[in-house]
Task: structure prediction
Amino acid sequence: MQIEGTAALFARRAPPAGSRPGHFVVPDDAQPTAIRALIFREGHCEERSVTSAEELVEATAAPGVTWIDAVGLGDGSLLHWLRDALGVHPLAVADIAHTGQRPKYEDYGERDLIVVQAVESEDGEGVSIEQVSMIVARDFVVTVTERPLPLFDPVRERVRSGTAMVCRMGADFLTYTLIDTVIDGYFPVVEEIAEVLNDLEDEITERPTEKTLGYLHTVRRTLLAVHRVMYRQRDALGTMMRAEEAPFSAPVRVYLRDAYDHSLQVLDSVESYREMAVGLTDVYLSSMSNRLGEVMKTLTIVSTIFIPLSFIAGVYGMNFEHMPELGWVWGYPAALLLMAVVAGGLLYSFWRRGWLRRRRRYPLDDADGADAER
Result:
């Protein structure tokens, strides 16, 4: 498992030092900007593309609630439209452009900024973390992401239906819905990490390798990144719940508490799995130490058996002239018998000490007896 966007989390994208406040720099590798507006109210939804500042202003001024769904920061025009046409504060626009922001809520009067971090699993190949920036006003919400997020597809379908609860509420409920969707997106990723840890636990107890340890460190780094993001996300949700100036009505704050509770559940799970990962590291080191001890014990037994045999062979290999056994017909068989008796005596002594016995099996041992064979 690998995690993408770690640099964005720990090293925020920023303009050159000394730039004026609100100055932003569009990354060279940004995707082309695509903007679509979903204008909805109960029983009705209209979807249109936005290609100019005039169309953007017209969409946000339409009757009902408007969701401006923008993907990509390619040419920077969207950022200029937000600042010049919609009156979004330049500092908020800069935070949108310079991804890697911590999850937060910023009050800018009638155009508030909310930043959350969404996490997605990429078909078992890794975990990616994506910044979702929201501009929240009375009758419209603007979401900006660097790339398309399938995470929001169910919300788009509910809005298009015109019958969902989000269509009967205002922009604040749409904002809550998007935030709650981001928070709930952590659960399947955390469950996938839990399955990986279970597989690693089986591998560590049966056949640990250096590759296993490297994979375990990758999982630990992933959990650290997820924990850091969700910890700040929880604080941001707490700020939105307590702030009187936050753009959420009293009924919506009740739902926001539910999203806050979900963030606590994610944090509890991540912290538990972090402790599990640390424990698995200790188990790995203990397992490798035990295996090394078994190897050293085997080598010690072999060496101990051959030490007296080498002594006997050395005595009879000195070729002194006056050695009665050298002229004896049964000298050679007697020497071999003596070696066999000494070796057998040592093996019996080791057996009595329990060094040669198989480990006793317990009910919790695997059915295949892999542990016992070791």
About this structure: The chain is about 55% helix and 15% strand. The chain has two domains: 3-284, 319-358. Confidence is low (pLDDT under 50) at residues 1-10, 360-374.
